[in-house]
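Review box. Two proteins, two foldings.
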Amino acid sequence: MNNSGFKFGIIFSVLLLVFITDLKAEINEPSEAIHSVKSVIIPCKDLIDDGLYKSIKRRSQEALDMGAEYLIYEIQTYGGLVQAADDISKYLILKVGKKAKTIAYVTTEAISAGAMISVSCQDIIMLENTTIGDAAPIMLGGKLEGVEREKQESFVRATFKRAAQANNYPEALLKAMVTVQTEVYRIRNVESGEYEFFENRKIPTDPNKYDIDNKELIVKDDELLTLTASDALEYGIARAVVDDEQGVLSYLADRDGVTFSGEPIVLKTIWSEEMVRWINSPMVMGVLVMVAFLGIYIELNTPGVGLPGLAAVICFTVMIGSKYLIGLANWVEVALFVTGLILLSIEIFVLPGFGIAGSLGIICILGGLFGMLIKNPPGKIPWPQTDLDWKLLSDGAVSLTLGFIGFVVLAWLSTKYLPKMQFLSGLILLPGTAKKGDEVEVSMTSPTESQIVNIGDIGEVIMPLRPTGKARFGEAVVDCLAQAEFLDKGTKIEIIQIHGNKVTVKAAGNQE
């Protein structure tokens, strides 16, 4: 017995020594027990639009592909398009949030649509003295009231509610960021000791569970909630308030028990994304429309195809391409627009007068442009379905209208002054001046002289008409348009129509 007990004691001692050794190793080497993770910072700055949405999708997927487990979105924006913000919100909650940790890092302000993106992340961390909130929808150039306001706000409230439920933010406070007349109180839960937030009409009545007598008014009924970093932290919207980027990583590491492998990678927007966003801004789009129409106008009033026509083609290509890249233009609308240009070109350069082809061309062009102002799949009629769609349409229409007004003004100025400038006089025909009968004053070789030509005059082609070119009538050199044919140099021609500054001719009979 004594011998057996001695053996048992030795075995027990050895096992205990092994256990103590393993435990000591775990205590002395904690780094092996802490999970090492990779983080990526994705800046989200300036106007929130469809271009930013596409960029966030690209950069987020790139971060996930490189194995990042923490995606930190650096927020610095006063807002933008609600539809783009909602697209980003759904992407963060339904896609990215299921594969990695998402953190909104507010470095200056997260206002309006910026607040929507922030609360769609699982955590919000703010720098000191930054702000978040003020997400009530607005309409540029108008005022939302009554039912129209409620229709807009109900959509935005639903988006904030979705984020509150997905990421555990106080739902009542997020609603107060969207809607005025939402009075919110903070009441302590006696059982848990935690504070909870309630709208005025939803205040609990059980005094055994809530300290109702000491409820605290947080948001008045005439206020729209905007919070500083310290208030956001106190009310449970911000998880932490830090001094810098390193403070963000330190907080996450301590809370989640992880270490970050190296410095976080910063995925910035690329130049093409910034350029597409810039092109699709209302101001730039209006300028492109103006230059395109002006180029067409000048080209129609000059022989051949030159720089004005090339400029118009480039402007239209840039407009359509940028709309296609951000998802506003699909292949149907692009095809419709191009078909319109082809029909209009046939009407101008091939067919005499203006008829069915020209009318269909204008309808196709307008239809294509209209469709590009609304986001819709190729198989669906491009018609606004929501107030947000109407807002996008109205903003685009304003850009087109301003661009067209600018074109009209510049076209008038070019008609009035370009012919008087010696080095630019070749860019545009002199305007026709009505005389007796069918007489008209037209441009000639010397811009300081003028010559009267009439319907029925016979002349000779001195620059091939394909279908536009130059012809000589007596001493006058006139810019002409051939009727449904190409005429070579030396061909005898007859004037058959004079409309403003447009002289239409045909081959004269009895050609030698």
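Next protein.
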Amino acid sequence: MDLFSEHAEEAKRANAPLAVRMRPRSLDEFVGQAAIVGTGTALRRAIEEDRLTSLILYGPPGSGKTSLARVIANVTHAAFVEVSAVSGGVADIRKAIEGADARLGMNDTRTILFVDEIHRFNRSQQDALLHAVEDGLVVLIGATTENPFFEVNAPLISRSRIVELQPLSDDDLRTILRSALTDERGLAGRVVLEPDAEDAIVTRSGGDARVALTTLELAAEVGEEREGVVHVDAEDIASAVTVRTLPYDKQGDIHYDVISAFIKSMRGSDPDAAVYWLARMVHGGEDPKFIARRMFIFASEDVGNADPQALLVAHAAFKAAEVIGWPECRINLAQAAIYLALAPKSNASYTAIDAALREVREGPARAVPDHLRDRHRPGAEDYPAYRYPHSFEDAWVEQQYLPDGLIDAEFWQPSFRGWEAEHLSPKRERRSEEHTENGSTDRSRKGK
């Protein structure tokens, strides 16, 4: 590199965002992910001993995927080639592989091919990497925020080690912020961060180091300068960044984790937790109809006939999400979520239909009892008499409805809670009495 190029690189680094300038240069500078690259871990030994095989780094934004890839390149003294799955294509991959082949042949230099957002590559683009990875021409490091088992081709998965990174802890973020304040590559002592400001940055960052450093950099521009030093307090953080960042992806693992927590909180009769997870989805810009559809299902699957009104409430919430939309429908969704959380619970409808389906799929073919068959056919006059329930007291009469071989089957197993307990079929009454004699109580609604 000539002096002009070196000067240009230095100027580029000096004007780069704080998050870029503060990227770690070694494993000792790398903050967080101790379970993966901490002292004595298998991956750290492989990096330090230059025995690294291809990796798929999987984790939320700002957890250190790109930084770890660059550190690996520095430690192993390999050539580092980056291809973006957003803007790159098969031609870029082939060019990188050809360069790797030339380096290996000319001076025995290995190449680390870093593919950011590898999940965005289609199947043919991912397949273009296979032979180079298999033959050792490149050490592939793919980075993705999506579950690689769903988004990356199985042949690439089988040739790579999957490394899952976690969101950075509050202590990790504090370490990164304090280093940026003092490091010559960072703010070099020109900024003082008040304790309440540090707390505000950590809270707003949601485990994302990039967000934390960007927030610090923005706040340093609005802080008060005193005697050549900029002082940043919590108000400066609030004025620099008005929206708190929390990790949320509408199609990825966090999306499914949060909706799972929402459903399980309602099932566990905890309205506060249900509203919190609902708020996470609202804040993340989730489709309100997706949330409402899941509540619609929940109303039958988990509340069922313990409270038949729950289905109507869930339907109303879905219509509100469909007709009103954000932001107002958040109130309708919250009302429905609280109602469903507090409703008595029964999964009897869910288990009943699945038990009946299992019998239909796995049991023998069973004929409709003759007295239940349609009468509009020749010979129907020879069928046994059908006993019309409305002709009897309470509109009920003892009579076989299930086919032969299933006369005593009980697919519906009532919960003995709420409306369901009050409206048992006559054949369930004896079971209900036995249940009560055994000391069961109706825990239909849980207060906080």
